[in-house]
Amino acid sequence: MLFLCLIVIYLYLDEFTLAFTPKIVWGHSAVFADSRIYITGGIIPISQDSFKGEHSKEFYYLNVGKPFGVEAGDKLPWVDLSPVSQILPTHAWSAFSNCGDSLILYIGESNGSVEYGDVYTYNLQQWNNLMTINSPPSYYHSRSQTVCDKTGKMYRFGGNFQPIGNPVINNKMNILDIHTRVWRSSGAPVGMYDHTGTLLPNGYIVYIGGRFNELLVNMSKLLLYNINDNTWTPKKTFGDTPTSRAYHSAVLTQDGRIIVYGGIDDTAADDLVILDTSQANFTWSIANVSTKSPLLRTYHTATLVGHYMIVIFGKNNEFISPTTQNEVFILDTSDKSNYKWISKFDPNLILPTSPTTPDQNLSTRNRNLEKTTIKNRYVCTLSTDKLMPTL
Question: At the top level of its lineage, which domain of life is listed (predicted)?
Fold first, then answer.
C-alpha cells in the first residue's frame, strides 16, 4: 500500500513539474550542467511591445535529458526551483557560469536591495554567508561575456552599470577565484559591453561584438585574452565579416566553430554567422540554413547540448513574441554545410564527440543554493597586464 502511495505521489509531482511554465523574459541568464539548462532572472515585459518591465527572480531548468518538442502546444520539461531560490534577488543581465562543482551567479542589475559584489553559488551545500575580498566597485551588465576555466576562476571583462544619468563602462578584467574567494582586477585595452566571451581549449577567450563608446565594435578585428599569461591580443579575422551587433549569443562546437546568432544593431539581426577558430587564421562565414528561421532574436540565451544549439526566450527590437508560443528553438549544427532549425529534441540522437574543453560544459551535481557575500576589504592584488592599442 505504501509503495502504491509513493507511486501516486511521484506521478502527481511529475505532472505538477510538467505543468510549470516560466514567464517569457529577456535579458535572462542560462548555464548548462547535468543534462539541464538552468535559467534565472531577466526582464518580464509589461507588454509585448515594451522595453520596460519588472526584474525576475525565477529559477528553473529545462530538462534536456529527455526528448521534447518545441512546436506550439508541446509541453516542455520545465522544472521549477522556486523553493530553493528565495534568497535570490530580482535581477537581470547577470553573469551565470559553471565553475567546478558550483553554478556561480553574479548580479548584473537589480531593482531590489543588493550589495555590490554579491555572488550566489548553487551547489550541494546549504546557504552560507561567506567572506571574499577585493570586490569590484559596482555590479555590471555581464550576462554573456563571463566564462570559467577548469581551475575555478571566473573571468568577467567589461560590462556597463546604468545608474541614473550616464552609464558607467567597466574597462577591467575582473577575475574571481572561487576557491580562495578573492577578486583580482587588471586593466583592459578598452571598456566594452553587450559582447560575448567564448573560452577556447587553448586558453584564449574570444570577445565578439558589443559596444565601445556607444558604437558597435567592428567584427573584423577581435579582442582575445590569454588566461595562461594574462595578456591581451588583437586578432584580425578573414572571410565574410558579419554586421556589427550587440546582445547576440555565441556557442563553441567541438570542432572549433563559434556559432554567433541574432543580436541587435539598428534593427535585430537574424543572420547566423560562423567563426572558424580551428586554424591560425580565424575565418568568418555565413551559415547555410536550409529551414525556416525563427523570428528575429536578441536578448536571448543559446546553449550547446551535443550538436544541438538551444535558444531560449528573448525578443526582437520591437516586441516579445506572444506567450502562446514556447519561445524555445533548436538548431541542428551537426552538418556545418547545412544548418537546420528543427522542432524535436532527442538526447538519444546526439552524435558522439570527443571530450570538450572542461571549461565550457562542466558536469556538476548542483542541488542547493548558497550565497557568497563579498565584503570590500581591499588587498593589493592588482596586476599589470600588457595592453594593446585602443581599438
Answer: Eukaryota
- φ and ψ at 116, to 5 degrees? -60, 130
Domain residues for the domain of 135 are 2-142+243-374
User: In angstroms, rounded to a whole number, what is the distance separating the alpha carbons of residues 30 and 28?
Assistant: 7
As separate numbers, helices (DSSP H) first and strands (DSSP E) second, the chain gives 1, 34
What residue has cell string 518580464? 44
140-156 pLDDT tens trace? 666 667 899 999 999 98
- The terminus-to-terminus CA distance of the chain in angstroms comes to 71
The answer to whether residue 367 sits within a structural domain is yes
Contact indicator for 197, 157 with CB cutoff of 8 Å? yes
Residue 301 lies in a domain: yes
8 Å CB contact between 385 and 232: yes
User: By the 8 A CB rule, do 46 and 26 touch?
Assistant: no
Residue 81: which of 101, 104, 61, 107 has the closest Cα? 61
Q: Is residue 236 part of a domain?
A: no
305 in a domain, yes or no? Answer: yes
Number of domain units in the chain: 1
Q: Is 286:240 a contact under the CB 8 Å cutoff?
A: yes
- Give the mean model confidence (pLDDT) for residues 30-49: 89
